[in-house]
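Technical annex, item 7. During the second reporting period the consortium partners agreed on a shared format for inverse folding records so that results from different sites could be compared directly. Each record opens with the tokenized structure and is followed by the designed sequence. A conforming record, contributed by the partner at site C, is shown below for reference.
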């Protein structure tokens, strides 16, 4: 298969012919390798993932905005469908979910079903409590490496950053320019797309009570306002569910594949 030359793509064949194809899309300051445990749990599917442009093995492709990432995913979907024997679906984590949704809106035939786990959609207004003013965005550093360290420490923990090897810290600092482009893609007044126009079967995933409340509010809103959408909760999980709960994230992916086959599944959950 011939994917865009600038993208580093990782794939695993299915155990049997005729399988569905699953494309996994990572979030900000992440990489394709973070899905390896999820992919191992899906032997019945043809799975593929990739370092988004500007990250890790795809740094040589330069830096793009959300629209550029959507174009890349559509190119991958077109190539995957060229020899697919079953449905083609995509599941994105965090900002990767925005990429998946944007692609399904831009070209509905590209995917038979899609999934997004806690996609950031600040324009929905759920970053604040009902009676509180909107919190300002943390300022973006002029130093991409410094911004990568700040983001990682904020999203994971300061202790997690210190536990990385020096090589690991340098790898994330090198992803700083792509991270800044990601942050600027959704720190905008106008939404980049109208999510309620989505007509491709969709599953929206979220963590349990330990995850950020605004993620849960957003996902509940998506489930109520996107026609036919299904909400899937991973109890006990926080935002990084693909890392902490790979079995349950894989189960969410299977639910997406089931929806591609015309399944009528409704909201579900997985206990930790």
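Designed sequence (site C submission):
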């Amino acid at each position: 298969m011939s994917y865009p030359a600038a993208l580093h793509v990782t794939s695993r064949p299915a155990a049997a012919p005729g399988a569905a194809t699953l494309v996994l899309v990572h979030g900000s300051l992440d990489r394709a390798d973070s899905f390896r445990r999820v992919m191992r749990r899906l032997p019945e599917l043809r799975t593929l993932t990739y370092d988004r442009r500007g990250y890790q093995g795809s740094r040589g492709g330069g830096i793009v905005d959300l629209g550029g990432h959507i174009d890349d995913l559509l190119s991958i979907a077109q190539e995957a469908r060229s020899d697919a024997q079953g449905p083609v679906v995509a599941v994105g984590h965090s900002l990767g979910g925005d990429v998946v949704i944007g692609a399904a809106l831009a070209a509905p035939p590209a995917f038979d079903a899609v999934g997004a786990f806690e996609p950031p959609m600040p324009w929905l207004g759920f970053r604040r409590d009902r009676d509180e003013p909107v919190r300002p965005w943390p300022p973006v550093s002029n130093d991409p490496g410094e911004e990568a360290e700040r983001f990682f420490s904020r999203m994971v923990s300061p202790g997690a950053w210190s536990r990385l090897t020096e090589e690991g810290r340098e790898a994330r600092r090198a992803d700083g320019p792509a991270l800044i482009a990601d942050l600027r893609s959704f720190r905008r007044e106008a939404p980049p797309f109208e999510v309620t126009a989505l007509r491709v079967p969709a599953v929206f995933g979220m963590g349990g009570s330990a995850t950020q409340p605004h993620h849960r509010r957003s996902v509940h809103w998506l489930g109520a306002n996107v026609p036919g959408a299904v909400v899937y909760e991973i109890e006990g999980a926080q935002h990084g569910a693909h890392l902490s709960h790979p079995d349950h994230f894989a189960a969410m992916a299977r639910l997406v594949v089931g929806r591609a086959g015309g399944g009528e599944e409704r909201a579900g959950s997985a206990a930790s």
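Residues 16 and 222 are 35 Å apart (CA to CA). The chain has ten helices and eight strands. All partners now use this format for quarterly exchanges.
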